[in-house]
Design a protein that fits this description.
It contains seven helices and no strands. The chain is an all-alpha fold and 156 residues long. The radius of gyration is 21 Å and the shape is elongated.
Length: 156
């Protein structure tokens, strides 16, 4: 896919001409030639300590509960969740056009993994928040209640 094309272009063009890397110095988005050729966006991890690694609980927005019931997150794995989580936590630091473009790409990837078609006009972050909340619900072990706990020292 795109990553393979990017790596191929990087290995073929950049070492010979260094053009691929020099382009990043003049490009406003700091993208290299191989990034442009492959249509990829590289997100550099300049996250302040504690922003992305903090525990977060996602909730399905009340207006989207019905929509969330149509989503099947069984096809999503930890890597997918990590992608969604990282995007949602960092999206506020992107310029509006970058946020929309990257959000669309992440939402398309996640929707494809869920075999889901996002309704026309739905903001990509709405899908992503719902998916993150549902994955957390799926992967969170229920907290045992007092009746679930067996006391090994109890008589009988």
């Amino acid at each position: 896919g795109r990553a393979g094309l990017r790596m191929f272009a990087r290995h073929l063009i950049s070492p010979v001409f260094f053009f691929g890397y020099l382009m990043a110095f003049v490009d406003p988005e700091r993208r290299t030639f191989h990034d442009r050729l492959a249509g990829t966006v590289v997100i550099r991890d300049r996250v302040r300590r504690g922003v992305v690694d903090q525990p977060v609980t996602w909730q399905v927005p009340p207006a989207l509960v019905g929509y969330a019931r149509t989503l099947d997150v069984s096809g999503l794995d930890g890597e997918d969740y990590s992608l969604v989580r990282t995007f949602l936590l960092r999206s506020g630091s992107f310029a509006a056009d970058q946020r929309q473009r990257i959000g669309e790409e992440v939402a398309a990837t996640i929707a494809q993994r869920m075999q889901h078609r996002r309704p026309p006009g739905m903001h990509p972050e709405a899908l992503l928040v719902c998916a993150a909340a549902l994955v957390q619900q799926r992967d969170t072990a229920p907290v045992p209640t007092a009746t679930d706990i067996i006391d090994p020292f109890a008589p009988g």
